[in-house]
Amino acid sequence: MMALLLVALVLLLLVLRQSLLVVLLAVAAFVHLVWGRGQLDYIIEDMWVALDKEVILSIPMFILCGAIMTKGTTAKRLIRIMAALTKPLPGGLGVACVLSCALFAAISGSSIVTMLAIGTVMYPAMRQANYDNKFALGAIMSGGTLGIIIPPSIPMIIYGLVTETSVTDLFKAGVGPGLLLTVILAAYAIWFNRHMPTERFDWRELGIALREGVWAALMPVILLGGIYSGFFTATEAAAVALGYAIIIEVFVHREIKMGVFYDVVLETSKLGGSLFPVLAVALSLNIILIEHRVPVHMVEWVQGYISSPLAFMLLVNLLLLGVGCLMTTGEAILVLAPLLAPMAASYGYDKVVFGLIMILNLEIGFLTPPVGLNLIVAMSAFKQPFGLLCRAAVPFIILMLIGLAIVVWQPWIGMYWVTGKFS
Fold first, then answer.
1. Where does the pLDDT of residue 55 fall: very low under 50, low under 70, confident under 90, or very high at 90 and above?
2. Residue ranges covered by each domain of the chain
3. How much is the pLDDT for 402?
């Protein structure tokens, strides 16, 4: 009876279009009063315990790092290097767009930041070079999604927090699927634009691009090299990334003045102010659910109906693809990961592998209406109709589904970078 009341409460709040924070607070209060210790002040205590984790510090630092890079000229310098390298290829500018997104993703940790930083430069350039409009939009929007699968990734940090999974292992595992998707998207860019004229490779142009962009190009090398070598943790990587971003943009490139830097910090603080209350409530709710063995009971219930790991994974992928159409990545991870990760473990899926699969599914959600964030942001940034953007995303969604299927079929693509084994 109480469970039905809880479901009714959630549905009522959703009908009233309440925010995720209000919904989670209501659920946490209900659970504490009905199944918990009956005192609402324990919510505050659990929120404090939940947020008392070092890795949480990495989230605002990565957000600020991406914002600084976006305001500066890092993206433009990376694009110039990639464009010089891919000139001899059919659709070289499209390939450069994908590769630039992949490189910037290894800095920003965010899909929207990656899409805007690269897209604001690449979209006019591709249109000026007579690239198909829908292809240009699709390449930019799908390339932006690489920001949450190529480490460092903010959704990976959130997943690691709510499932108690090593964020460093998640970062390491993300490189394989990230490279796979980058290759798939780049190959499609070459095939789609196979009749486009090519240009002769210019060593002088590459030399100038490398000279002007060497500091920008070194950042992902330092960051990922430090993580994969074990030289620093995810939190330390965030501090290194932020410090490096400030040094090269403020003191080396001298593109960001102190007044602009103040505005960037203020914008980042506002974003953190909206994220951390939701994170705190979700983690406190996760604590009480674990105390009352809710994930364990759900695992037992699901196993009573589904015996095949393959059938379970198929259903989970369909669920996550549907959820990705209706919820943002952070919201979906906060709500579903604490419940689905234990189920996946009961079917033999490592928590790191399941984290990759979950994030890959939700990554596709950035391109699917009605809540596809890359679609919504692109509509404003590039002044294009929403329907056109949806149609432009379709072939890239299919390509990303192929990448997802390959990772589900061969999970070693991610785990090799963690275990060093092809199994």
1. confident
2. 53-256+292-419
3. 95
SS3 of the chain: CHHHHHHHHHHHHHHCCCCHHHHHHHHHHHHHHHCCCCCCHHHHHHHHHHHCCHHHHHHHHHHHHHHHHHHCCHHHHHHHHHHHHHCCCCCHHHHHHHHHHHHHHHHHCCHHHHHHHHHHHHHHHHHHCCCCHHHHHHHHHHHHHHHHCCCCCHHHHHHHHHHCCCHHHHHHHHHHHHHHHHHHHHHHHHHHCCCCCCCCCCHHHHHHHHHHHHHHHHHHHHHHHHHHCCCCCHHHHHHHHHHHHHHHHHHHCCCCCHHHHHHHHHHHHHHHHHHHHHHHHHHHHHHHHHHCCHHHHHHHHHHCCCCCHHHHHHHHHHHHHHHHHHCCHHHHHHHHHHHHHHHHHHCCCCHHHHHHHHHHHHHHHHHCCCCCHHHHHHHHHCCCCHHHHHHHHHHHHHHHHHHHHHHHHCCHHHHHHHHCCCC
pTM recorded for the entire structure:
0.86
Residues 153-167 have pLDDT tens digits of 889 998 998 888 998
pLDDT confidence bin for 35, thresholds 50/70/90 = low
